[in-house]
């Protein structure tokens, strides 16, 4: 029961604030116009302090290099050797238009409708059969389609990590993964690599000391270093994982970009006991904008990923999934790769030869057989901050190595440069600018 005086008081207040209008004989009506008084009051409504409202446990990425690179990549006259994309001018748009038209005819309105949280059944089947060619046997219930492999990395982390848990990564490793692990509260420990990939020979010590929740690895043409884990080490890594019951997260975006040497079997293909969760993507084989990746793992984990997808984006975009199905079925993906791999091979050689032609003492390129990157050690005697500054002055964008190291500090000066996206002229001019920046930043 409400007291009459309270009601009267409420009416008085609404009236004085200009929300209602009372006229004798006409009763009281809601006032449409905001009164002058209210307008004045707007001036005194305090602004929301978003910086204080943000959950800083999750939001730790405001200095993210990936974002910065994406932003300045389009600056005028900038030569970017920092990204990890296909050169847009190499995409056969006419061919893709034909496939898109075929999709319109074949699928019609279905292209624009909602689809399963786990992805289109047909695409999951296609992924499973393509993975078979890699020696990975997966039942359809062990496959989920995600919005790029990035989402797979995030779901794996969210499914397993509680704040304070340890994760072991190669050092250096993919900075976009390190950021996810840290964002969800994991403590990231880096294990060094050499020319054969992760130093599995010292891994046991790390496992005993840190008791990690999982091991994250990019075994083939690693980002950023380009190195590939040898077969012996793949088997040793699996044996250690079995011994200490530690799951492995295998991130595999580059293994089809084979430029030299043999094709390596996926860790997942060698795994006899379901310890490896495999993450694949179309981003590096074809193009990134489609945002389609997949995860192959134990059914229980895939189910958990389904629940996460339900709350984050319901499902991967239907149009892109149908397009990918037809790109695969009509062998456009295959043709695209057959056309681009010789270009990457050429680009890489041109970049390496150009760097070597400058003959900078102490500058060293890490050997690699595929993927998108050259991992380069710069002279010790270089002021890294000044070098990064000079690069931006001379309009060449590179990835400084530091953020790829989980601990955030390194004794040596590394950079990652990309050869998949630039043209010949950009490679030659870009490396020239890079050399100017190195010269300008040498100490003493
Ligand atoms: N993992 C690695 C190692 C990568 O290099 C990248 C892209 N730079 C990704 C995952 C994310 O790729 P996407 O989400 O486009 O599949």
Strands, total number? 16
Number of helices: 16
Structural class: alpha/beta
Distance between the termini: 85 Å
| Strand fraction | 5-15%
Mean pLDDT: 92
- Rg, rounded, reads 27 Å
* Strand order, sheet with most strands: 4-11-10-9-8-5-6-7
Report the bound ligands by name, code or SMILES.
Answer: 4'-deoxy-4'-aminopyridoxal-5'-phosphate
Instruction: Enumerate the spans where pLDDT stays under 50 for 5 or more consecutive residues.
Output: none
What is the helix content? 40-55%
Shape: globular
Biggest β-sheet description: 8 strands, mixed
Can you lay out the helices and strands and say which pair or pack?
Layout: H1 4-16, E1 20-23, E2 27-30, H2 36-42, H3 50-53, H4 65-72, E3 79-80, H5 93-107, H6 121-133, E4 143-146, H7 148-160, E5 166-171, H8 175-183, E6 187-194, E7 197-198, H9 203-210, E8 214-217, H10 231-244, E9 248-251, H11 267-270, E10 276-281, E11 293-296, H12 299-312, H13 318-329, H14 332-358, E12 364-365, E13 373-378, H15 384-393, E14 396-397, E15 399-400, E16 413-418, H16 424-441
Parallel strand pairs: 3-14, 5-6, 5-8, 8-9, 9-10
Antiparallel strand pairs: 1-2, 4-11, 6-7, 10-11, 12-13, 13-16, 15-16
Helix pairs in contact: 5-13, 7-8, 7-12, 14-16, 15-16
The structure holds 4'-deoxy-4'-aminopyridoxal-5'-phosphate.
GO molecular function, one term: transaminase activity
Protein name: PLP-dependent aminotransferase family protein
Keywords: Aminotransferase, DNA-binding, Pyridoxal phosphate, Transcription, Transcription regulation, Transferase
